[in-house]
Amino acid sequence: xxTVAVIGGGTMGADIAVVFAHAHCAVHIAExxxxxxxxxxxxxxxxxxxEPAQPPVVHVAQDALPWDAVDIAxxxxxxxxxxxxxVFAAMEGLARPDALxxxxxSSFPISAIAGDLPTARRMFGLHFFMPAHxxxxxxxxxxxxxxxxxxxxxxxxxxxxGKVPVLVRRDLPGFLANRMQHALAREAFALIDAGIATxxxxxxxxxxxxxxxxxxxxxxxxRDHAGLDIHCAAAATMYPTLAANAEPARVLREHVxxxxxxxxxxxxxxxxxxxxxAAERARYEALLRAALELVxxxxxxxxx
Length: 304
Fold this sequence. Notes:
Blueprint: E1 3-7, H1 11-22, E2 26-30, H2 34-47, E3 57-61, E4 72-75, H3 81-94, E5 100-103, H4 110-114, E6 123-128, E7 137-142, H5 148-160, E8 164-168, H6 177-193, H7 199-214, H8 219-226, H9 228-238, H10 250-257, H11 274-295
Parallel strand pairs: 1-2, 1-4, 2-3, 4-5, 5-6, 7-8
Antiparallel strand pairs: 6-7
């Protein structure tokens, strides 16, 4: 049994704990906020209610963890670099020398978090995607000092846990998936800025067009389906006209300046009320669960 420490019991920390609990790992979660610890226990109880007779071992603590037993630690604290660096410095002093130390940061490279710590070779980015217990992908991100053999060990651990790991050999901003996602978003918002399409039509074009096909094949495999000659010719025509702005689109900056941040403020590109937020989140999660069932045959086999 692998023993996992999750540092931080927020939304991502809770979801990541569920991932490892489903993989029959012993999971220990450190969360300093007493109210969040209560909510965390309730969340885990709901998510793991359908487990077989032998339930997963999940402990929620304020700070004390059984570091001598921990094989891998995942830092899930807020996105503040000084905080993450202090957590890693503390983990280095607490964890066994052979334990893997990882960060779920989506913005800070592991090289910046690890800094000049003596055992930076065992430190990696381990980037999950929300909601982490439903989205299969996880990025294993190497820093300048990360050990390649340990990276392969981490990839195998994630595969054994039922995830789809991808190895990112250099921790450039955005890693792998977010870079591609932001490239799409840049073009999408540029089209809205130019009055070419509405936000709703942009969403529909992705969801019910090429995005629909991405469930079956990624952009590289899809080009093999369609023909590389066709893609190459189309690229030669379109690339010169694609958005290349080095700052966020005007429409995006204007929404942020007005405090229209989406669900969290009740208005973004769409209008939101507590009722519509609840309905949208339920719809979103139901579709993700259905999609997960559709691609289950392509996922790694679960551990025995």
